[in-house]
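Lab notebook, bench 4. The sequencing result for the construct came back, and we need a structural model before the next group meeting so we can plan mutations. Quick request posted to the team channel:

Model the 3D structure of this chain.
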Amino acid sequence: MKKRSTLLMTATALALTSGLAWANSNTANDHRAVDYPSQIGPNGVATPADPKGADMQAEAHQRKAMADRPLAAGALVQEPGYYRAIGSDGKHGRYVVRLSSGETAPSQKQVDQKGRYFSPDHWRWEADASSVTRALVSTPCPKSGQWFAEVPIDVQNYSHFHDVTVTCEKGAMLPNLNIGDPYDEARVRWVWIGPAGHLQRASR
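Done. Here's the predicted structure in token form:
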């Protein structure tokens, strides 16, 4: 009995260690988007929290209110949420980054809309901190807006799929990229990059 208990404790410890190693390997690179367990539900389905859209209306109001309150790079975050990096030359970050109250706004280089690195001058609030911003292909869209297909670089014909962006309404199905290989298709992540129309505003 004692031997069995020891084996169970060892197995549990190994599982916890593996989980920590996975988390560390996925967060080591600041520029690499990772899967947050709270954002992807059972079977990889991201579940919408507010089917009536009240959260979207509140978020749009907050986004408008925060538009004149940019967060300088290196400053302390007062309002938690997902922020977008803005460069002094007007470049916009491709991704939104979740920042918590009391955290320091990043000053390291970010990726712009064309995949090039730039130094952020300030950060602009885009979405509520509780937003679901990642989902798998062929699953219900958890948040209305524009979604970017994050495709692993080792996927065959990567150049054909690496810059796909779609506008999707909450509850609609996020599309399959038809890569061909089911294994590679399962590795694709749709990443929310902003409200509908934000790419047009960023290019002005």
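The CA atoms of residues 4 and 10 lie 10 Å apart.
Will bring this to the meeting.
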